[in-house]
Amino acid sequence: MTDPTPPTAPTLAFTGVAQGLRTDYCGELRVADVGRTVSVAGWVARRREHGEHLAFIDLRDRTGIVQCVVDGAADLRSEYVVRITGVVRHRPEGTVNAGLGTGEVEVGDCTVEVLSVAEPPPFPLDDRREVDENLRLRHRYLDLRRDRMQRNLLARSKVNSAIRTAVERQGFVEVETPMLIASTPEGARDFIVPSRLSPGSFYALPQSPQLFKQLAMVGGLDRYYQIARCLRDEDLRADRQFEFMQLDLEASFVGQEEVLGFISEAVVAAVAAVTGEPPPEIGRMTWLEAQERFGSDKPDVRFGLELVELTEVFAATEFNAFKAPCVKGIRVPGAAADFGRNKLDDLTAQAKRWGAKGLVWMKVEAGGVLASPVAKFLSEAEQAALVTALDAAEGDLLLIVADERPKVWHVLGLLRLELGRPPVNEGGFTFLWVVDFPLFEALDDEGNPVPAHHPFTMPHDDDVELLARAQGEEYLQVRSQAYDLVLNGWELGSGSVRIHRPDIQQQVFSLLGIGPEEAQAKFGFLLDAFRYGAPPHAGFAFGIDRLVALLVGEENIREVIAYPKTQSGADPLTGAPTPVDPAQLTELGLRILPPPTPPS
């Protein structure tokens, strides 16, 4: 009989290996074991009385559950830790549980040894009822016993193992980088650690090993990787924690294509380790195409509702709302009947909250007639061209935004997700490489370019000359050799080809307003290293928490982390963060200032 284990619940295989107090794991027993005397150990998941002197005990360990038939088991309670010795036998006819890996067998003629008694848990440990998250995290050691958490953490272990195997097969060497470093500007707030030996000075916890992995390239290690712990003091959300794990990778004498190949092999191996089969081939899209078609640099391409360019359609329009640098729309097939005026007003209000001046809606009726409060302001030619451009049909809903192009991207990108995005665990696993990101994301108030990445990102080969002569808005046309990996609309990670040429590095620093003294103060140890022969190099890092969450169908990465923080940054298990003993503060040369007085 085939084991009905779902693809997101990988199983362990330890059959026949003695494990101290047990001969077998509970979830590994099968028909082939019938007649064997075994010892299994674990927690009492459930007890069912059968008459006065007979009980069925579901015994649980991390591999699953096995049913044990025990004579005189009245003193066994939920979550007692026991060792049961008995003989594996077929379940009686009519009692086979096809939904359980061990459902064809049971352990009979049992003797029981109680190893540890247990108080009643504060919440049920099955997955049939929702439990308050704070309660779960306060008793995380109990929450970890639940099938859901066992499956998730086992999947995480398999992902880590598959990644290590894949990158080491490609010649990468694992190197650990320090956790106590100097604070460097990387976009988020650092967690800082006071130094007892140097009062008034502080270490920072690493936001990433970025500079150290580049130093490893200067050091000739050629191909570095690390499953690295990173820490950032930023607001938490479903896909973000203070502490997170990432595959960090860097290689010398390679460019973008090689790095994309390295990472693709690693993520394909990770998916196959959890689901049993590799994902579809990873597609590729430029940043500009992603924005134009999906309104996002991390597009979810599992569904349609693509953005369609309408600017030319309304180039000569008399309708003031469409006299804008950019007009785009999306077609929602067959949705006209589902959206009454109240729902459309809600959509319009939502678009305004996202920054739009407004949202124009139109319903397509028979013969391509458009029903909308604004239809009377459009010429027949404009209406016909609109229907053609959006490939609209009777019953469709059309939604249009006109504004500056980045604003149109943003609003329609969020709108398509609101209307069409499937749940995280539906539609398979669609990876996408997004390449050719801009080197700069905006201009500041003084007209200086604002970097879109860290200042060591190499400009695109075809745009190096443009960078040298660019002025004003031209800077925003300069592309970088930066690339992101996206899965089902989640950004898994990013990377880039690094600048190793001193002339280009100085040029970028100058554009960012970083003079030689400031550059030396912020990045001196890296720049000093580059003076001694830096090879061309490139790298990437992606979040393992996010990858595992998607693979097991979780919306929140807290469900794939053994000991996470709440959204407020608290740890209900240990009570962290907590005040520090005044004596420790004195030893560190610190004192706590009173909170600021609120304004009257």
Descriptive notes:
The structure is a single chain. The chain has 600 residues and is of the alpha+beta class. Among the domains are: 26-116, Nucleic acid-binding proteins (OB fold (Dihydrolipoamide Acetyltransferase, E2P)); 147-280 and 542-583, BirA Bifunctional Protein, domain 2; 304-420, Gyrase A, domain 2 (2-Layer Sandwich). The protein has 14 helices and 22 strands. α3 (147-169) packs antiparallel against α5 (256-275) and α3 (147-169) crosses α13 (544-551). It is globular, with a radius of gyration of 30 Å. Residues 1-16 have low confidence and may be disordered.
Ordered list of secondary-structure elements with their pairings:
Blueprint: E1 37-49, E2 54-61, E3 64-71, E4 81-90, E5 105-116, H1 133-138, H2 140-143, H3 147-169, E6 173-174, E7 192-194, E8 202-204, H4 210-218, E9 223-231, E10 243-252, H5 256-275, E11 283-286, H6 287-294, E12 308-309, E13 326-332, H7 341-353, E14 360-364, E15 370-371, H8 380-389, E16 397-403, H9 405-420, E17 431-435, E18 440-443, E19 449-451, H10 464-469, E20 482-487, E21 490-497, H11 502-511, H12 516-530, E22 537-543, H13 544-551, H14 582-588
Helix pairs in contact: 3-5, 3-13
